[in-house]
Amino acid sequence: MTKHRPRGDLNRWHTLRLQTLVVFMLLCLDTGILQAQPSGFMEIAPGIYLRPGIQQNFSSHNRGHIANIGFIVGKQAVAVIDTGSSYQEGLALRQAIREITALPIEYVILTHMHPDHTLGAAAFDQDKPVYIGHAQLKDALIRRQTYYLDRLKEVLGSTAEGTRLALPSAGVEIDQEVKLELGDRILELQAYPTARTNNDLSIYDRNSGTLWLSDLLFVERTPVVDGSLLGWLKVIDDLDQREAIRVVPGHGPVVNEWKEALADQRRYLEALLSGIRKIVRKNGTIEQAIERVGQEEKDNWLLFDEYHGRNVTASFVELEWE
Ligand SMILES: [Zn+2]
Known about the structure:
38% helix; binds zinc ion; 7-stranded mixed sheet; Metallo-beta-lactamase, Chain A; alpha/beta
């Protein structure tokens, strides 16, 4: 016989449990523990799972978990989107997938070359997936692999163990239409001309209206130019014409009001552009540009001091001879 609690008790018990849960969640939000729960993944739309990256610099403290990574589950297959910064992070991602579904992992999509997005990929070798990225991704990874792997070992120490490169077996050309079928859902892949990097790729899930822009959009965190400032601004113009219900950035929270986030990023990049052009026109130096350009944006972005100077330097070199 089942023992029933008196209804009043049950309500009180539910209220207490709810209060405890709310307090726990608030504590978690405050300390960032929410991201470190067993698998750390949240379902942001039906069948779309995201492990939010920590908004910090790559370090042994955060074990390199700084990028948004995730996966999409269809009726017949799974596609991974970005794999984290180490073999271990890739294995944890694979484990999270296996806790949710036993379907085959057919695709591992890499949104661009950066190590916090790509270096966990080899954890999926056992699934024999199609590793897919921008047509220029393979070359970009090969050229940087020694630097990426050495740096990873230096920062993460033993956490980096087992990490190796998994190169894309398929490439998406700019203007090529590539669709991946997962059964009941189709993912549209798009490769871009040089913008954030020279190998940016986005993924659009038609079923849920989710556009995974990865590092083409930074939310809250200082955008980092590692391709072309002018190219990125052009791509932002194109993205602004698109429709999507939600956007997954490479760093920062998922956004529904994503055009606003895109406008914030544009404002920052335009501040770089106009500030540097002004200094170049007066035959000013990079040092002057680093000191003066875009300082009004300082309070709008996380990690500004870590990345802004680098952005000015890279963009100065790009704009110096235009
Ligand atoms: Zn990133």
